[in-house]
Amino acid sequence: MSTQERLIETYRKKAKYYDVTSRLYPAPGYPQRTQRLQAVRALRLRPGATVVDMACGTGLNFRLLQKVVGPGGRIIGVDLTDAMLARAQDRIKTNGWSNVSLVQADAAGFDFPAGINAILSTYAMTQVPECAEVIAHGAKALCGGGRWVVLDLKVPGSTPRWLAQLGTATVRPFAAIDQWMMRRPWEAIRAAMEEELADPSWTELFGGTAFLAAGSRGPGAFGAPPQGSAHQ
Ligand SMILES: C[S@@+](CC[C@H](N)C(=O)[O-])C[C@H]1O[C@@H](n2cnc3c(N)ncnc32)[C@H](O)[C@@H]1O
Q1: Angle between the 161-169 and 174-183 helix axes, to the nearest 10 degrees?
Q2: Per-residue pLDDT tens for 177-227?
Q3: Cβ 152 under 6 angstroms from ligand 1
Q4: Rounded Cα distance, 129 and 115, in Å
Q5: Which has the least CB within 10 A, 123, 139, 155, 215?
């Protein structure tokens, strides 16, 4: 079984109860909602904007995004795992949202629509081996001034290895923890954001156990259309 197939299997198993179990992510009491709000605020969205939620899972960000883009905006949720998207589709139907569309795709091969206002990814990008390429592809699709925001977990700088393993064991498949820690994907994400975006920022959250990486595309191929006039 390939790494990607294993990942899909893992999330197929998690999908049904993800909305409940993710509240304990990565540990009970972890300020996940506060971090999500911070990430959405960092997108600087206005009503009418178009935003891609990369690796959206069951769509836990959709309500927060809806509040800022409004019914005239557009949300495109992308995820690799069919079962996670099925839960996201349930959420869309239950809430009667007609401005949310879903795409089943690998982030690495996703063709971002041109001229979008923003891209968000929460608690997912460090699982994507090609995260730097995804950031580069996304950055090129943003309109001038468009925002890329990544929120994810990391290992705090001074954490002993055994403690970090214990902490991450609750959320990652056991066999993958060592690999994730050794790969230090948050460093590749930080470097890619610095390379691709005009004003990259990096904020460590909750004792360095998470990070918020953000930046804007400088004025470029798509100019800086007012939000709401981007790709529809
Ligand atoms: C921990 S969940 C996070 C879901 C959601 N972003 C959230 O904040 O609740 C990780 C998600 O990333 C998705 N994922 C992992 N690798 C991916 C990839 N290469 N392309 C697209 N989605 C991916 C998984 O299917 C899963 O839904």
Answers
A1: 130
A2: 778 888 899 999 999 999 999 999 999 999 999 999 999 999 854 555 557
A3: no
A4: 25
A5: 155
Ligand 1 centroid distance, CA of 125 (Å): 7
Joined together, the tokens standing for residue 49 give 């904007």
Q: Residue 225 CB: number of other CB atoms within 10 A?
A: 15
Residue of 128, 134, 149 to test ligand 1 pocket, by largest number of atoms within 8 Å of CB: 128
How far are the Cα atoms of 35, 130, 193, 197 from residue 157, in angstroms, in the given order? 19, 23, 20, 25
180-190 CB burial, b ≥16 within 10 A, e <16: bbeeebbebbb
Is the pTM higher than 0.90? The answer reads yes
CB atoms within 10 A of CB 103: 14
Residue 37 tokens, joined: 């709000």
The residues with which 118 forms a beta bridge, in sequence order, are: 51, 147
Q: Which helix (H) or strand (E) holds 122?
A: strand 116-122
141-153 confidence digits (pLDDT tens): 999 999 999 999 9
Hey, whose CA ends up nearest to atom 26 of ligand 1?
Answer: 57
What separation in angstroms does the CA of 199 have from each of 47, 78, 93, 217?
Answer: 23, 25, 37, 8
Cα→Cα distances 27→21, 24, 76, 113, 128, Å: 10, 5, 29, 35, 22
